[in-house]
Write a structure and sequence with these properties.
Helix content is 27%, strand content 20%. It is an alpha/beta fold.
């Protein structure tokens, strides 16, 4: 039933699903559909400045590899977004990393969905390069989160779900459907999940553009950019690192450390 609902939704709204992108990938068209995005072959090392890797990418590419921006590619197996990824939600800058992660797929015309995640700031997503016209914000709470996620599986290319919205058995079933159907699941990891292909954690978040303001709690000035240091741990082993500027800025210039604030 869920698959039928997702297929009908995709047909009615003209969504590009994971299956659509898989067919495009087979024809060699995904990379061309996303200017500036990369889709290197499995095991291809990241370009300098895109991340450091201490282990090879997993063998056996998944059914669908969604393109991502170059600053994200070195953090993910196969250089793109595939099957199951987790973002540690309680880290400063995690939401900014999520928006940047969605910039590649939505820029390629793929539809993504956020399920049961209220109070997100959509203008920050747009600033990070994501196409808001390709992101569905699905209001759901409690047990309806699992229902909504199940209905959307295989109907969108990528789906973001809070891990504490599903029981462990429900999470396992959704993961199995994702691996089978080609929908990328991004766990907003509010509770640990088992076996993601990559777990992303922001280890440092700095604002650029703020000035110290002596005698006051908050600094002054305008925010120009946010600089994130991100570490990825792959299921296949090894640590992978990259510096991400989700809202632009000059990577050559120093960021201003800002311990009180938080990236959107």
């Amino acid at each position: 039933m869920a698959t039928t609902v997702a297929a009908a939704l995709a047909a009615e709204l003209g969504l590009r699903t994971g299956a659509d992108l898989r067919r495009a990938a087979d024809a060699g068209a995904v990379a061309a559909a996303a200017p500036g995005a990369v889709r290197p072959a499995a095991g291809t090392p990241a370009a300098p400045g895109q991340g450091e890797s201490r282990s090879a990418a997993p063998t056996g590419p998944p059914k669908t590899i969604l393109p991502v921006t170059p600053d994200i590619s070195g953090l993910l197996p196969h250089g793109g977004l595939a099957t199951v990824t987790a973002i540690t939600a309680d880290r400063r800058g995690a939401t900014s990393l999520l928006w940047r992660l969605l910039a590649g797929p939505t820029g390629a015309g793929a539809w993504c969905a956020l399920v049961g995640m209220p109070d997100r700031y959509p203008l920050a997503a747009e600033a990070a390069g994501a196409d808001l016209g390709r992101i569905a914000f699905v209001s759901a709470a409690g047990p309806r989160i699992a229902d909504a996620a199940g209905a959307l599986a295989e109907g969108v290319a990528a789906m973001v779900v809070p891990s504490d919205g599903l029981t462990p058995p429900q999470a396992r079933r959704l993961t199995a459907r994702a691996r089978k159907g080609g929908t990328a699941i991004i766990w907003w990891e509010t509770r640990p999940v088992a076996g993601p292909d990559a777990r992303l954690k922001v280890t440092r978040a700095d604002w650029k553009g703020l000035r110290a303001n002596t005698g006051r709690l908050w600094g002054s000035g305008g925010l120009d950019a946010c600089e994130l240091d991100v570490t990825a741990h792959w299921r296949s082993g090894g640590a992978h690192r990259a510096r991400v500027w989700p809202y632009g800025g000059d990577p050559a210039g120093p960021a201003t450390p800002w311990s009180w604030g938080e990236c959107p």
